[in-house]
Amino acid sequence: MVSATRLATPADDIAEVLVDEGAIETKVRELGARIADDYRGKDLVLVSILKGALPFLADLMRQIPIPLALDFLEVSSYGASTESSGVVRILKDLANPIEGRHVLVVEDILDTGGTLAHVVDHLRSQRPASVRLCTLLDKPARRLVPIEIDYKGFEIPDKFVVGYGLDYAERYRNLPFIGVLKPEVYRSP
Ligand code: PRP
């Protein structure tokens, strides 16, 4: 017998859709075109931060019609919480050297800025030709570390969002839109 909880869909826990599928698609197309114009003729490596940036990366790379390579970092700071622990750990490092190459970091969300600041320091120490940042979402109200964003999707208010790669306790990453989680979901014991 399947319990009622298991039959519920992730979308049932969403209070409000902040960015719908159509808006994401349009923005990703715009960002991809700008990135292609800026990096044409350059040795471009997209460095994506697992796991949250995965859907964004998958869509964005297909809108960048120039040669590029992919690499991944896994960085953890949040754990099963809605607040950053402030401690950044590299769980998985790059597979290939980036010295002399043009690196574009692809992130899902910029919140306090702690993760990206750490990632940028880590990448710059490997002497790439350049490091720029692309984030789908920016929550400026939460910023603690100043970060310059080169390619930005959407500025969002200080609400806990999930979907399109973003999780709460590893769930909701598969929602095709960005939504605000109902507070009772993360307040329940
Ligand atoms: C999230 C997000 C960013 C980071 C942003 O990652 O993907 O990497 O937090 O927060 P900050 O600006 O306050 O540092 P998380 O640690 O939740 O891992 P995940 O991508 O695997 O979900």
Could you characterize the architecture of this molecule?
This protein has 189 residues and is an alpha/beta fold. It is 25% helix and 29% strand. It contains 5 helices and 9 strands. The protein has helices at 4-7, 21-39, 54-61, 114-124, 183-187, and strands spanning 14-19, 44-50, 69-76, 89-92, 102-110, 130-138, 151-155, 161-162, 178-181. It has a 6-stranded mixed β-sheet, sandwiched between helices. A 3-stranded antiparallel β-sheet has the order 1-9-8. Helix 2 (21-39) crosses helix 3. It is globular and about 50 Å long. It starts with a helix and ends with a helix. The mean pLDDT is 91. The structure holds 1-O-pyrophosphono-5-O-phosphono-alpha-D-ribofuranose (PRP). 1-O-pyrophosphono-5-O-phosphono-alpha-D-ribofuranose binds at residues 49-52, 76-78, 84, 107-116, 167.
